[in-house]
Amino acid sequence: MPDLSDAAKRLLLGRPVRSERLGHTLLPKRIALPVFASDALSSVAYAPDEVLLTLSLVGVSALVVSPWVGVAVAVVMLTVVASYRQNVHAYPSGGGDYEVTTVNLGPTAGVTVASALLVDYVLTVAVSVSSGAQYAATALPVLRGRETTFAIVVVVLLTLINLRGVRESGTAFAIPTYLFMASIGALAVVGGIRYLAGTLPLAQSAGFELKPEAGYGVGLTGLAGAFLVLRAFASGSAALTGVEAISNGVPSFRPPKSRNAATTLALLGGTAITMMLSILLLARATHLQLADDPADQLVSGGTPVGPSYVQHPVISQLSAAVFGSGGFMYVVIAIVTGLILVLAANTAFNGFPVLGSVLARDGFLPRQLHTRGDRLAFSNGIVTLAAGAIVLIWAFHAQVTHLIQLYIVGVFVSFTLSQLGMTRHWTRELTATQDPARRAAMRRSRVINAFGFCLTAVVLVVVLVTKFVRGAWIAILAMMCVFVVMKAINRHYARVRKELALGDDLTEVRALPSRVHAIVLVSRLHRPTVRALAYARASRPQELEAVTVGVDADEATALREQWDALEIPVRLTVLDSPFREITRPVISYVRSIHRGSPRDLVVVYIPEYVVGHWWEQLLHNQSALRLKARLLFTPGVVVASVPWQLSSSVGQTGLEEYAPGTLPRGY
User: Fold this and answer.
1) SS3 114
2) In whole angstroms, what separates CA 206 from the centre of its chain?
3) Which is nearest to 80 in space by CA: 260, 238, 250, 232?
4) SS3 of 253, please?
5) Residues 6+ apart with CB under 8 A from 196
6) 320 neighbors 330 (Cβ within 8 angstroms)
7) What angle do CA 310, 313, 314 make, to 5 degrees?
8) Which of 85-99, 213-227, 260-274, 623-637 has the lowest average pLDDT?
9) CA-to-CA distance for 131 and 342, rounded, in angstroms?
10) What's the angle, vertex CA 314, arms to CA 42 and CA 318, rounded to 5?
């Protein structure tokens, strides 16, 4: 069984990689851009849609206002990118916002940021994959109604790819990411040229009239209109998610790490802003109509189009207008857009495990998240992220409109606290630096981070106000739960460290038990029992006895007679068990020995079968497992398992087939 499972693991994940090859997994900028920036770049496929869907409530005014909403989002992105370029130079260790906030604002603020980022990473995977599933259903009608299943399968595939290692996943995702960038670039350039030449066709939906929802008949004037614009801005700000992942992933870059990370940030910001504004401007130029409720809001000849009308995403409608529906470029854009939306989750698959490793190192998450797997990836973090995303996709039926309401709250919490922390960082550094050139650079950096703090704080308030009742409260509640759990884990680790610390008095280190009392548990007299007796005698304890429980009087008598007949030189003690229990009499007897001589060490030898099949485990060792579980909680007692390998266990280590010196690489 282990042979089969190990072979399957090697087939899916590849051979183990030695620790000294960690340097070979570092990423050049051309691979780091698709690895860490695919989330922000992919937002071009859904952020403009969300802006237009929100503004569609007021009717035709949506196309007039949407480019200006895009400009506001672009200003925020430029500010955040400039701010994070300061972060990666000042804190290149990979802690990102968590480290910046912890060092400058304290551990509580750091854990707040960490909880927000962990939740946001899970949402990134859920939103990106769900959006990709919807695009796939548009291209492949067979997937309609099966988006949830398709999205879950995609998350599993992404998990397997990332378990193979960062460099392998980056190489696999680089080509689709660059194809998406080239396709959107071609769409923007060709569309712009055709617009200037006066040959740009209208979008397929341009012939419909967009009817405003009830309560928005006066358009964007008044308080309701202003609130709607803020909602659209909050939805468009989803384009900023993923920017922080680069600051968490600085250790994955090739040297010089900070400079390469800062360059990748600049490339990310410039590319994402250009693509998003191009999409919104083309949507306006082609009079594209996108409705929150297309069946009732889109009107043709005075009659709503009804539920039979299929509303395609913005990019699909634009590519049909610019290149023609069904043409080569139309198909290419549809395919690469679906791919980039799915692969955008890779940003979270690289950010979440690294952040989880840092938090585990500091004692806020289980230690297992700090350990790299045999492919040098943080395997436990990757699996944890995938499990959380699958739960969200299943719970929200892969509906992006519902999931995106939970989105971006966490990332703006981290943006805001991180920029406040960086402002304090530069203020502290200025007091300790006298060089005029360095002071001038620090003042400039402080101005950038201070402006970033003010702007992201305003956006955070807007997001909370406009999205709270629409689902953001769920994300906030999840962050609070993660915060409480991380604090509890940290308290537990601190309590255990204090309990296990040696202290100044080292008498415990030098002291030995006055005597060793060895007990061999006997169920029947067979070869495993004889081996356990031999091991116990070889340890030369001061006192040795065999203990059995007299559940059946006849069996106990037969065992004693056999014991005496073989003249075994170890005393056999039979414990009475009127209620036919095994565990309780043994525990009571062992505790009585410890109470009688508290300084004695009691060693309990338990013979166990080693089996080769899972179903055999159900047939053996049940009493031994219960006894071990209870004895572990008994002070002054050591439990020693004495294995006896049954024939079914032969060849189960996976190493027997190799001669010495011929093991596969990595073993």
Assistant:
1) helix
2) 41
3) 238
4) strand
5) none
6) yes
7) 130
8) 213-227
9) 8
10) 110
Pairwise CA distance, residues 264 & 242, whole Å: 12
Eight-class DSSP state of 140: -
pLDDT at 464 over 50: yes
Q: How many helices (H) and strands (E) does the chain have?
A: 26, 8
Query: How much is the average pLDDT of 587-597?
Result: 88
What SS3 string covers 511-579? CCCCCEEEEEECCCCCHHHHHHHHHHHHCCCCEEEEEEEECCHHHHHHHHHHHHHCCCCCEEEEEECCC
Mean pLDDT of 621-639: 83
540 or 622, which is more confident:
540
- pTM for this prediction: 0.69
The CATH code of the domain at 513-649 is 3.40.50
Q: Tell me how far apart the alpha carbons of residues 638 and 632 are, in angstroms, rounded to a whole number.
A: 8
Q: What is d(CA 559, CA 550) in angstroms, rounded to the nearest whole number?
A: 10
CB 116 within 8 A of CB 351: no
Residues 6+ apart with CB under 8 A from 185: 275
Residue corresponding to tokens 């919807």: 134
CB pairs under 8 A, 24+ apart, for 550-557?
550/574, 550/575, 550/576, 550/577, 551/577, 551/580, 551/581, 551/582, 555/524
Instruction: Indicate if the pLDDT at residue 612 is higher than 80.
Output: no
Is residue 74 within 8 A of residue 273, CB to CB? The reply is yes
Residue extents of the structural domains in the chain: 21-423+453-483, 513-649
- 127-157: per-residue pLDDT in tens? 888 877 877 776 677 777 788 888 899 899 8
In the DSSP assignment, the letter for residue 601 is: E
How far is residue 623's CA from residue 630's CA, in Å, rounded to a whole number?
11
Helix axis angle for 436-467 and 61-90, nearest 10°, is 140
| Torsion of Cα atoms, 448 then 450 then 456 then 458, to 10° | -130
Mean pLDDT of the chain: 80
Averaged pLDDT, 483-510: 76
Q: What is the pLDDT of residue 488?
A: 92
Query: Under a CB-based contact definition with an 8 Å cutoff, are residues 103 and 428 in contact?
Result: no
Given this chain, do its domains 21-423+453-483 and 513-649 carry the same CATH topology? no
Q: What is the mean pLDDT of residues 97-123?
A: 90
The CATH topology of domain 21-423+453-483 is Amino acid/polyamine transporter I (1.20.1740)
pLDDT beyond 50 at 24: no
Q: Which residue has the higher pLDDT, 375 or 160?
A: 160
Please provide residue 292's backbone torsions phi and psi, each rounded to the nearest 5 degrees: -70, -35
Residue 505 has pLDDT above 60, yes or no: no
DSSP-assigned beta bridge partners for residue 605: 520, 640
Paired tokens of 555: 């069996």
